[in-house]
Recover the amino acids of this structure.
């Protein structure tokens, strides 16, 4: 049995950094305690993302989806909030996984689904941010073209395409994620192959670089070009200052880059442990922290809307005031009806005697 566990460890240590967490010897207790602190800090980040993100994104979905007028811009932010909200609904599974010292009791299908949703959120978010940036650029720099083609119908086509492409990019998680019984724990990990090291290395490299290039580098270049062109071309015409959504969108894009950049850098760095374990301990601390920072991005967008967008603040206050007014009107109406019923009962005592 011990030989089997050692063999499994040798096969999976290259891309399942948390296996080392359980295989520490007595001499590594101090280092293991340090990793425990790192994992608890990352756990706090996960919980913070969930606590702040669920109500925040639910509010954005409620207002942009049901209360406000449907426009191209509200559709962008609605779908961005939906991507974050779906991911956050599954986040308690990962929180439980980390809290139970990387023990996955939820079965192989939830292991696959949880990882797929995380990938779907990452790709959908960055694709929608890219679409929003391109939309802002065309709307401000090419208004005639924007007026002709910037319609709800065309935006819905783009939205459907984004969700399809994000699902396609997250698909490998459904295929490769698997569970493994190891050292009295069930791990949820990437099972690239059980016996072929070369195939493991190739698949790990391909998926990591595709995720980096398609889900980060190309969108980053597209968004950077859009905003640099906006800054240089509209500076003299003061369009930048008068734009209602520019600073909000720029802040959302910057938040995405700040939160997701460490995650992608550590993912690429993780590839080096196939050849050398020199930075293995750095990765053990860096991967969970960078993952926690990436997850935190899902709760930041609603906060940024409230802090930066004056239009969002105005609409939010107006919608809340409308809801409160309607609630008070209903309560007042209910109270008036109850008072009228009591008065009628007082004037007609016979009603009390015949009541069941």
């Amino acid at each position: 049995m011990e030989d089997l566990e050692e063999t499994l460890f040798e096969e999976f240590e290259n891309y399942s950094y948390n296996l080392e967490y359980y295989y520490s010897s007595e001499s590594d207790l101090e280092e293991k305690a340090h990793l425990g602190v790192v994992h608890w800090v990352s756990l706090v980040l996960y919980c913070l993302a969930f606590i702040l993100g669920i109500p925040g994104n639910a509010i954005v979905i409620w207002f942009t989806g049901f209360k406000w007028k449907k426009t191209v811009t509200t559709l962008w932010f609605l779908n961005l909030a939906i991507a974050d909200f779906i991911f956050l609904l599954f986040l308690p599974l990962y929180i439980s996984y980390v809290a139970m010292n990387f023990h996955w009791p939820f079965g192989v299908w939830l292991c696959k689904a949880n990882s797929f949703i995380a990938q779907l959120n990452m790709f959908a978010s960055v694709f929608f941010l890219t679409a929003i940036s391109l939309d802002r650029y065309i709307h401000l720099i090419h208004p005639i073209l924007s007026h002709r083609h910037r319609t709800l119908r065309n935006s819905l086509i783009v939205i459907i395409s984004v969700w399809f492409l994000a699902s396609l990019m997250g698909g490998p998680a459904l295929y490769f994620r698997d569970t493994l019984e190891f050292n009295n724990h069930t791990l949820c990990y990437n099972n690239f192959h059980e016996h072929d090291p070369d195939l493991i290395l190739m698949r790990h490299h391909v998926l990591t670089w595709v995720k980096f290039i398609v889900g980060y580098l190309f969108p980053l270049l597209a968004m950077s070009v859009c905003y640099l062109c906006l800054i240089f071309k509209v500076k003299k015409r003061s369009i930048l200052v008068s734009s209602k959504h520019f600073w909000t969108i720029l802040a959302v894009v910057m938040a995405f880059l700040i939160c997701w950049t460490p995650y992608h850098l550590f993912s690429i760095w993780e590839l080096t442990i196939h050849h050398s374990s020199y930075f293995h301990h750095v990765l053990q601390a860096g991967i969970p922290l960078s993952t926690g920072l990436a997850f935190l991005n899902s709760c930041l967008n609603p906060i940024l809307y409230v802090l930066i967008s004056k239009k969002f603040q105005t609409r939010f206050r107006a919608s809340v005031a409308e809801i409160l007014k309607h609630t008070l009107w209903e309560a007042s109406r209910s109270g008036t009806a109850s008072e009228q019923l009591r008065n009628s009962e007082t004037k007609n005592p016979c009603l009390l005697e015949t009541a069941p």
